[in-house]
Design goal:
This protein is α+β, with helices and mostly antiparallel strands and 100 residues long. It has helices at residues 14-24, 75-84, and strands spanning 6-11, 28-33, 37-42, 45-51. A four-stranded mixed beta sheet has the order 1-4-3-2, covered by helices on one side. A hairpin with a 3-residue loop joins strand 2 and strand 3 (37-42). The protein is globular, with a radius of gyration of 15 Å. The relative contact order is 0.17.
Length: 100
C-alpha cells in the first residue's frame, strides 16, 4: 500500500499559515518560496502550504475543507497548550469520533 508523502493545503494568508504550523504545531520548514508556497515536514510527511488567490475562510460543515488529525497521548493537555498558544478550538471539550 502506498505511503502518504505529501499533503497540499491552500491558504489566503500564507505568512500566517507558515508561522502557525511551525510555531504552534512544531512543523519544520524545509523550503520557503515566500510569495508562492512553503514546504514543511512533520513526522516524515511533507506539507506543502500554497498561497490561495481567493479567500480560504469556510463555514464548518457546509464548505469543502481539509481536516488533519494528529495523535496525542493526552488530548486535554494538548488542547490546553493549543489554547495557550492562541488557537481557537471548535469545541471546548474533546469530541467522540467513530473514525479515530
Amino acid at each position: 500500500m502506498p505511503t502518504v508523502r505529501l499533503v497540499n493545503v491552500y491558504f489566503s494568508d500564507l505568512a500566517y499559515a507558515k508561522d502557525w504550523y511551525c510555531k504552534v504545531l512544531g512543523f519544520e520548514m524545509s523550503q520557503d518560496l515566500p510569495t508562492l508556497a512553503a514546504e514543511l515536514r512533520h513526522e516524515g510527511v511533507t506539507f506543502l502550504l500554497h498561497k490561495a488567490e481567493n479567500s480560504t475562510v469556510r463555514k464548518l460543515g457546509r464548505d469543502s475543507m481539509v481536516t488533519l488529525a494528529f495523535a496525542t497521548d493526552n488530548v486535554r493537555e494538548t488542547m490546553k497548550r493549543l489554547k495557550e498558544s492562541g488557537v481557537t478550538l471548535i469545541h471546548p471539550e474533546p469530541q467522540f469520533s467513530p473514525f479515530w
